[in-house]
């Protein structure tokens, strides 16, 4: 079972209390975007084997959105941070780089 800590209220919750929101840190398109840009926004997502940055909502708690860094193979959670953060925190990227061979924190920023 996936267990995440909500950085907004501090509660630790199982995935049944959360709602997934897909990939984090993607560029959202506005109403003036052409059809191909809107298609890319809706359907073209990374689905990596390993480290992944995702959006989650604490649905049965505070109701706020947050981001989580986790490993899609082992389900290890490296950390969570508020959704208003434009990119993963440097400390979190360094923590992941120390644990995951071949992970390049510079490739994320």
UniProtKB/TrEMBL annotation:
<dbReference type="GO" id="GO:0008115">
    <property type="term" value="F:sarcosine oxidase activity"/>
</dbReference>
<dbReference type="GO" id="GO:0046653">
    <property type="term" value="P:tetrahydrofolate metabolic process"/>
</dbReference>
<protein>
    <submittedName>
        <fullName>Sarcosine oxidase subunit delta</fullName>
        <ecNumber>1.5.3.1</ecNumber>
    </submittedName>
</protein>
<dbReference type="InterPro" id="IPR006279">
    <property type="entry name" value="SoxD"/>
</dbReference>
<dbReference type="Pfam" id="PF04267">
    <property type="entry name" value="SoxD"/>
</dbReference>
<dbReference type="InterPro" id="IPR038561">
    <property type="entry name" value="SoxD_sf"/>
</dbReference>
<keyword id="KW-0560">Oxidoreductase</keyword>
């Amino acid at each position: 079972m996936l267990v995440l800590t909500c950085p907004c209220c501090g509660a630790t919750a199982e995935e049944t209390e959360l709602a997934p929101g897909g990939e984090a840190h993607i560029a959202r398109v506005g109403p003036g975007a052409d059809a191909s840009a809107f298609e890319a926004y809706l359907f073209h997502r990374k689905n990596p084997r390993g480290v992944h940055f995702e959006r989650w909502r604490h649905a049965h708690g505070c109701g706020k959105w947050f981001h989580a860094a986790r490993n899609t193979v082992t389900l290890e959670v490296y950390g969570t941070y508020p959704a208003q953060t434009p990119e993963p925190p440097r400390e979190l990227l360094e923590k992941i780089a120390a644990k995951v061979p071949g992970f390049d924190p510079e490739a994320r920023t």
